[in-house]
Amino acid sequence: MKIEVINEKRLNHIHYCRIHKENNQLSGSFWVPSKSKSKNKKMFSIELNDSDFLVCDPEHIFKQKISGNKPSECILNLMNILIQEDMEFLQKLEMKLERIEDQLMSHTGSHYESQIFEMRKMISTFDSYYDQMIEVVQNLQEFYKGFETLEKRLTRLSNVTDRLAEYSIQLREMHQTQVEMRQNQIMQFLTIVTTIFMPLTLITGWYGMNFKAMPELDTSYGYFIVMVVCILIIILEVIYFKKKKWF
């Protein structure tokens, strides 16, 4: 069987993986998500019949030779090449999520939201890719045999991405919970400070009226008495708040 890989043609119209058969010609177009941040996806297309197998690979996705004596062997080999390193890649993504979790638990690091968002976006992209590849394999099984193992591999990869997606959601919720807890602590502190100074504000406002008939204004020790009263009020409030475990 003749196998040819060409790189001249640019493919800008491919947005999902699909394959179809018309007469004796099998045609397919594929997009492959990038495993780095440099590019979102790479694209290629195939044309296959009983004697020829043509791969249009303008972005050099396939670094190794595609082999096969039959049409089913060629496309099976090609699809196995596409996913041969994906499980290791997904494990690295899981390790990154675990590092983010450790940072959240130890309150180290920063920019958690952007990190989690980028991870979720990449995981979602691969999840969609595996779902489309499973559908392609199921369509191929209408024409060829021997794709059961490949379908199982893709299903396992899809299950892993689902688990990673759930993990990333839990990390986002954990981060949001920590943010809300910090906000509650700040609001609690401000509320306590406000509560402590409310009686003092009342006292200063009361004696700020300066009526002539106020006896305390003529007392030589009035200033010190009010000062001691204010200090006692603060001490009693602090003791009360500590008993209530408000801080």
Structure notes:
The chain has 247 residues and is of the alpha+beta class. Helix content is 59%, strand content 13%. The chain has five helices and five strands; from the N terminus they run βββββααααα. The chain has a five-stranded mixed beta sheet.
- Please summarize the sheet with the most strands: 5 strands, mixed
How many DSSP H or I helices? 5
What structural category arises from helix and sheet content? alpha+beta
Query: What string gives the helices and strands in order?
Result: EEEEEHHHHH
Strand content: 5-15%
Calculate the mean pLDDT score and round it.
Answer: 86
How many angstroms does the end-to-end distance come to? Answer: 78 Å
Read across the widest sheet, the strand sequence of neighbours is 1-5-4-3-2
Helix content class: 55-70%
Give the overall shape.
rod-shaped
Pick out the low-confidence regions: none
Query: What is the radius of gyration?
Result: 34 Å
**What is the tally of beta strands?**
5
Features:
247 residues; alpha+beta; 5-stranded mixed sheet; 5 helices; 5 strands; 13% strand; rod-shaped
Topology record:
Blueprint: E1 2-6, E2 18-22, E3 25-33, E4 41-48, E5 52-56, H1 71-83, H2 86-106, H3 112-140, H4 148-207, H5 222-243
Parallel strand pairs: 1-5
Antiparallel strand pairs: 2-3, 3-4, 4-5
Helix pairs in contact: 2-3, 2-4, 3-4, 4-5
Briefly say what this structure is:
By secondary structure, the chain is of the alpha+beta class. The chain has five helices and five strands. The chain has a five-stranded mixed sheet.
